[in-house]
Design a protein that fits this description.
Elements lengths: L1 H26 L4 E17 L2 E16 L4 E3 L5 E3 L13 H29 L2 E2 L5 E4 L4 H5 L6 E5 L2 E2 L3 H9 L6 E7 L2 E7 L2 E3 L4 E3 L2 E3 L1 E2 L3 H28 L9 H12 L3 H20 L6 H14 L5 H31 L1
Antiparallel strand pairs: 1-2, 3-4, 5-14, 6-13, 7-8, 7-9, 9-10, 11-12
Helix pairs in contact: 1-2, 1-6, 1-7, 2-5, 2-7, 2-8, 5-7, 6-9
Length: about 350
Amino acid sequence: MSILWSIIILGVLILVHEFGHFITAKKNDVQVDEFSLGMGPKLFDIEKGSTIYTLRLLPIGGYVRMAGMDETEQEGGERSLTGCDDPRGFNNKTVLQRMSIIFSGPVMNFVTAILFFIIAYMGVGIPSNDNVLGQVMPDQPAARAGMEPGDRVVNINGAEISTWDEMVQIIHQSPNQELTITVHRDEQIKIFQVVPELDQENNIGLIGVTTSMDKKGFMEAASLGVTQTYEFTKLLILAIVQMITGAIQPDLAGPVGIVSMVGEVSRLGIGSVLTFAGVLSINLGLINLFPIPALDGSRLIFLALEGLRGRPLAPEKENFIHFIGFVLLMGLMLMVTYKDIQRLFQ
């Protein structure tokens, strides 16, 4: 299930990223030769209009191939751009048009993150600070004592309880100590004797309950989605800066690491999966905007230089830089994957 969820999440994030490039290219009347989801050997393709839509074996990337972007070798060893004479070629569009096509991929990832958060907040909700039990885990202290979902905790050992935080604070501080917990259930008062079990990893008491979820309306969910995307973006930028400066240890994850993390969050429910997918989408959009060769950010830098210089960099030089960047990225991915596998065995 972890692998399946990972393929679905990565597939959606790659699809929306490439769709951003694709739809903006179409809006600017650029000829799109191929829209590919995945990398490596081709599984199947279908031709519609002037575009071939391809599904490939490895769900770790994708691309939109446009006329005027690919370099080919001609007779005599000369190199030229395919479709360079096509008025619908990418290279024959203005700098701003080409920048908008490149920029739209990462933008779609940020939009997708917002949508994931909105769906999570509307369909699942956000953890409430209300003193009402959401889930009661089977074979845990609360369940063994007879507590049920929907119970409103109003008193613990004589202390009045009005919020979830107040309840959690007492339980955390009372491992292996019997607590008298009073709840309201269906206009009745019930009293339970519960002994929190010690969580040795965190040295706190737990009784096996979760908070209730507060579902939001569309407008509030949309506002929270935008805010959450902004906050996560800030946190990710800060983390990347700290890794570059050496303030914190580099902590990267490849496909294997993502599968492992999806497995962890899937145990917490669909809301956590959606939130994780949103954060992953922000990661993809943000990393692609970095000026790293072979990524969208570096192409934007080259287009900005073309705008300032009034002429583009020689195609063979730019393509060589992107090729070196691609090789380095593949090497980094292999190294990160190796580290992920080591962590799994540890």
